[in-house]
Give the backbone structure.
Amino acid sequence: MTPQTMTAAPQNRVPEVTPAFWLIKLTAVTMGETAADFLAVNLGLGLGATTLLMTAVLVAAILWQFRQRCYVPASYWVSVVLISVVGTLITDNMTDALGIPLLYSTIGFTLALGLTFAIWWLVERTLSIHAVFTLRREVFYWLAILFTFALGTAVGDLISEAFGVGFAGTGVLFGLIIASLAFGYFVLGLDGIWAFWLCYIFTRPLGASFGDLLAQPADYGGFGLGTIVTSLAFLAVIAVTVVTMTLQRRRSA
């Protein structure tokens, strides 16, 4: 076989799961919570206008991501940050604008995520995040990501607000859940794919609780840093991490 006839092996379009992955994912979901509140409340755009605006920006980011034929940190993580914001806004609209109880939202998004996984498996015979080589698999991947963010928001708000656990208590609860999943994966042999998706869901309420704890005023159980300071701080962490990832990939190329 000549070099001209050789076909390059397809590359995964999403990142490998590393400590840096979880760091930036956690900061992204924290920023998603505070940024949604900043746009809707502090800037006075309102829930509806903020949702339309951020959905349009998310669509543009996802189209940018779909144009890639391998993992590109900038397009991937911009999409994650925006889908975190939109996932938060979807749940907030269902709760605040439509009056749907958080318990029903939690059940609904659980079913939607389960249906996404079922169809993904039936079509592709795999849910592996290590083999997202085609556009169809990537569509399933991002749809699952959207539902994990919406579900994580609903679960976190349900426990923190409806059950009265509070920001700190909710963060500790989901931190313990994630720690138990890590123990199950590293020690007990829990399936890696399911461990990943469960941790992906539960890092959403963990990050959101941490963001609310920092941003909300003391009267609501927070530290009172505000949504602007909190959002900018986590945006800076995300930007530095993405730039570092990009430089590392260029050096290794």
